Amino acid sequence: MVDLSVQIESADGLSWTRWKRIVAEVERLGYRGLYCCDHFVPPGGGFADSIELSAAFAYLADRSRRLEFGALVMPVSFRDPVFLARQAMTLDDLSGGRYILGVGAGWMEREHEMFGYPLGDRPARAARLAEAVGVIVRLTRETEPVSFEGRYYRLHEAKLLPRSPRPGGPRLLIGGSGPKRTLPLTARYADAWNGGGDPDGFRATSTRLDELIVAAGRRPQDVRRTLMAQVLCYRDSAELAGRLRYQMARSGSDSAEATLAAMRERTPHLMAGPPARVIEQIGAYGAAGVEEIMVQRLDLDDLEGLQIIAEEVLPHVG
Known about the structure:
19% strand; two-stranded antiparallel ribbon; TIM Barrel; 13 helices; 318 residues; eight-stranded parallel barrel
């Protein structure tokens, strides 16, 4: 069985009004969790509302009663790992252990140039991420003061309080499938992994991750397997047009069918179709080892689309 959560793009118009509405609806509809990307601006250009995620998560932690939540993912290129650890422990404490700290290396050149954060080349990003994870796990999992000396970060007899209510601290999620750096880092430290690809590709990478986890002295079941994917569920042509109004407006197209065809070409593993077809596609990922799918929603106002998935798909996969 596969759990379903919701993922939204926070940098493309996420206001407090929208966030409050989304939190309430995702909780009401029975999804497992709610996740956001972490950016200052949309990747394609322009500017839009984008509320700061640690503040948004504090609201969710206080107003929801059961939702798990976190970022996919917070880049350590502009998020200091000490503050990430501090925020994670605070949010986990406030929510009763429902926070998941998702971290990544950073990738969008535009926002780094705009705000003066050095992004670096790929080796530098990977090295910085590895150090940041080392800082985070020391601060969140060790009960005594810790020290650390690295190229990017330093700690000296440091300790954070209050602690997370979870034994071992807040859960840590790492996304990516890089075989040399990201997967070994995930195998050593992560509680959850966010992968990608089609079912066969996901299975192959997950199998490699199993090998690395065992080599690190852990059990494969210690790392939850997750996937973020666009899911479009519709029962007729009218509902298809409703699900694609955001994409059609962006592309200037007046044809839902042509828009969907273009999306399939850009995203070959898009899950789309009537409920039975979506259930079948999710089942293929479940058979490949996916335990949770973060349903990516680009249209922040399409709550009907979330309701259709919750009513027509969720009872048959979760």
